[in-house]
Hints:
Organism: Actinotalea soli
Keywords: ATP-binding, Cell cycle, Cell division, Nucleotide-binding
Strand order of the largest sheet: 2-3-4-1-5
InterPro entries: ATPase_AFG1-like, P-loop_NTPase
CATH architecture of the largest domain: 3-Layer(aba) Sandwich
Number of helices: 14
Strand content: 5-15%
Pfam families: AFG1_ATPase (PF03969)
Structural class: alpha/beta
Oligomer: single chain
Number of strands: 8
Number of domains: 2
Protein name: Cell division protein ZapE
Amino acid sequence: MTSSLTARRPEVPADRLLAGFVPPRHFVQASFDSYRPDPGHPSQEDARTRLAEVADILEARPARRWWGGRARTAPVAVYLDGGFGVGKTHLLAALAHRVEGSVYGTFVEYTHLVGALGFATTVRELSGRPLVCIDEFELDDPGDTVLMSRLLRELADAGVALVATSNTLPESLGEGRFAAEDFLREIQALAARFEVLRIDGPDYRHRGAPHPEEGLPDEEVRAACAQESTATCDAFVEVLEHLHHVHPSRYGAMLEGVGAVGLTEVRAVTDQADALRLVVLVDRLYDLDVPVLLGGCGTRGLFSETMLGGGYRKKYLRSLSRLGVLAELGRVRAAELGRA
């Protein structure tokens, strides 16, 4: 009998949350040598060279510096800006692998960590690390702006090196999402901490904008999942409802041991809260390289034109880019199972 994703409600102890702040499975082999810069975009090679220099700097610093009070000089703070699929996450993961004792997570995961551990405990735990890597740095609401600004300020004061990736320059964070002028001071203080490295180039996953993926027949999705012992299969709307009841910090745990995810009757997401939860789920699926067998409409029209033109536009486009990769893996898996 095919298992169900909606039957999973993991309970994750707080200490285990922090232990999971490592580069995702998708980038477990990421290194500076395995990064392939596009010769047509020299900024990619420049970014690799700079982050390799940062790794050398951090490796050369005495370990006691990170455990014994504040640094005497300003800590390293680098901000990788660029579009989707130019290798920012690969480079960030490569840096985290190089620097022993570093922590790695997405912006959303750090806000979830604060929610789980509390602000003071999070600062205490992270202040003992040489490097904090923050992927997909996005400010979605005023509360997150203040929270992350304060967290980074305290970590920098403790001498922790900070390296972040984003699709938006620091001084533009928050634009189009809320009344940025009300939080200009916080955003400017954030921007001032980073050396900005711009990485140009097309999305290596599609070499262009994400294109719609047609859905598989729902019966084909069910049949393929029934032949895969580690697959789950659920109706799309039921998964969206289930995500209401699972904290986003536990989505990764919810997917533990899952070899493929089948989603039938996929349709347009009409509620923005549902859409944002789906984005987090897709990120965790992508981190874990889990094939997704999409039925229904596939990715065509999954997010409305209004959503794609709004303040969360880059979140949705990134999600479509990643879901397209996972859907292609799903098609391959379904074809393999169909021949078995």
